[in-house]
Amino acid sequence: MNIIVCLKQVPDTESQIKIAQDGKSIVEDDIKWVMNPYDEYGVEEALRIKEKFGGEVTVIGVGPKRVAEAIRTALAMGADKGILINDPALKGSDSLSTAKALAAGIKNLNFDLIFTGQRGVDDDSGIVGAALAEFLGIPQISVVEKLEVSEDGKRVKATRPVEGQSLLIEAGLPTLITTQKGLNEPRYASLPGIMKAKKKPLDEKTLADLGLNPSEYGEGARNLKIVALTPPPQRQAGKIIAGETPEQKAAELVRLLRDEAKIL
Amino acid sequence: MAKGVMIIAEQRDGDIRKISYELVSEGRRLADVSGQELTAILLGSNIKDKAAVLGYYGADKILVADDSRLEKYTTDAYSSVIAELVKANDPEILLLGASAQGKDLAGRLSARLGAGLAQDCTSFAMEDGSLTAIRPIYAGKVYAKVTFNDNRPQMATARPNVMTINEQDKSRSAQIVDAAFTLDDSVIKTKVVDVMKDKSGRVDLTEAVKIVSGGRGMKGPEGYGLLEELADLIGASVGASRSAVDAGWRPHSDQVGQTGKVVSPNLYIACGISGAIQHLAGMATSKVIVAINKDPDAPIFQKADYGVVDDLFKVVPAMNGEIKKGQ
Fold first, then answer.
1. Which residue from B138, B163, B220, B275 lies 20 to 30 Å from B10 (Cα-Cα)?
2. Which has the closest alpha carbon to A257: B302, B205, B224, B233?
3. What is the distance between the alpha carbons of residues A220 and A91, in angstroms, rounded to a whole number?
4. A163 touches chain B (CB under 8 A)
5. Considering only residues 124 to 163 of chain B, which have any Cβ-Cβ distance to chain A shorter than 8 Å?
6. Chain B window 177-196: which residues touch A at a Cβ cutoff of 8 Å?
7. Which domains, ranges and CATH numbers included, belong to chain B?
């Protein structure tokens, strides 16, 4: 089984996000960059499938240069090779351009399965996986929390939660899966793993290497522009309910929800 | 020249889902502001007689794609039919719900059409004849206002339970049209082989109008019995914070927050939840927030409309008693 795992870096979820002076970008100075949490499930699932079926796991990400750290982490977890698509012209690319670049990096590789995280916890859009599948002409199954590969390695059954129910979806390979929390417990990279990773191949490709036209990438090619960033809507200060006993407070709360908020 | 606002209605088992009415209502508002027509697309099997209600909420025209292969949603069948209809009708704006189906479909469509897509938007406006949208990013720590370039359609998904639904007007009659489309079997590459309904029997959190939620302060799985009783009394669903899920007290499907579900109920009662920013990310658009927590410094009190600083194991049973009295 040849498996491709796409990953990106995002600010650690504990990071404070500050709006920059220009009012439409965030301050990146103090950010701790980590592998997008959803992408970790993709790396882990790929490794488990490789352990069962044999084969190779290739990890691919779109720049900047620091993304190589996340690729090395995946190699340390057990992936076999890495590809970093890095080019100044890529800076500011939107989801479709990112997916196009990934598709170019992947299309000439042998693959049975592609994993992406169900969304990046920075942009919260979840478009790249679907767009990549579209550009490669393969099916997608999104937000997968359980995956079963058939014994002959030709089909998958994926469990996908939707509102009020879970769907069991079947597809032939190759297919793209976007990974959801609960799919697996990602392993930590071991010390021997980290040492081995230093010797595993990590190729860097520019847009020219992939035969891509820089004018279709980057800030200028964005379909969507962020024109302003604002803090979240402020909520009006609420009231702390007075009372001598919990029972009194409970009664007052119920009364307020019924008569004032009119919600009970 | 692109013209018109188009929305994709959502149905399941032949019933139109509430998000469709939110989309028609919001689509109507945008169409009125910009002097355009509103078209709804409805896909399904034996679904045509359900279409008229979309007109009562404000659609001018409803394109019905009726085919046994459209009975259950698949990315391939739906994106193929919709892409064809979009190319034939050339709308300015295409809206879907940011439901599980909507987000999956929108992503695929945006790549097929080369269209910009703003996901999970909390509001829309028209500016200089173009769509603008507001959407939370970085788990809602920041809100982004986005605009579109010249590619058409301008695509967006709307967060469920945020847009106001119009009053139904049964005197409105929309034009109901059998949509012309071609759908090749070979295009459909996935198949739904089983549907497993959630055991709780409660409304899914992402669609719940009322939610009672428990966090680390619940101290264990047993405490949730109290919350379930309250939920039963007020018609709510039951959620949990990440701490409770990681501790194994509640399933991941109950988790509200950055790595869980984003919810937007009319009422969110947070019990024993401190209010970490990752949890707020999942419920900040709730209309009324109630916090019950022993710790007066819990950050959740900054966001709550009503706060009770006391022991939830005394407050919640007392609430349940009060509510029963009033029923």
1. B138
2. B233
3. 10
4. yes
5. 132, 135-149, 151
6. 189-196
7. 5-187 (3.40.50.620), 205-326 (3.40.50.1220)
Report DSSP state, residue B261.
Answer: B
Tell me whether residue A160 is in a domain. yes
Domain presence at residue A124: yes
pLDDT at B88: 97
Residue A239 to residue B305, Cβ atoms within 8 A = yes
Amino acid letter, B229:
E
Q: Please give the helix or strand (H or E) that residue B308 lies within, else none.
A: strand B306-309
Three-class SS state of A174:
coil
Segments of chain A with pLDDT less than 70: none
In a domain, A12, yes or no: yes
Same domain, A139 and A210: yes
Q: What is the pTM of this model?
A: 0.94
What CA–CA distance (Å, rounded) separates A84 from A58?
Answer: 11
Least Cα separation, residue A53 to chain B (angstroms): 23
Which of B99, B107, B142 faces A130 most closely, judged by CB atoms?
B107
Divide the 327 residues of chain B into consecutive groups of 10 and give the mean pLDDT of each group: 96 96 98 97 97 98 98 98 98 97 98 98 95 94 96 96 94 96 97 92 90 97 97 97 95 90 94 93 93 96 96 97 92
Say what the ipTM of the complex is: 0.95
Interface test with A, best of B72, B145, B152, B262 (most A CBs within 10 A): B145
Is A179 in the same domain as A123?
Answer: yes
Residue with tokens 């695509």: B155
Q: Measured between CB atoms, which of B75, B139, B267 is closest to A140?
A: B75
Please tell me the distance from the alpha carbon of residue B104 to that of residue A21, in angstroms, as a whole number: 35
Assess whether A58 and A170 both reside in one domain: yes
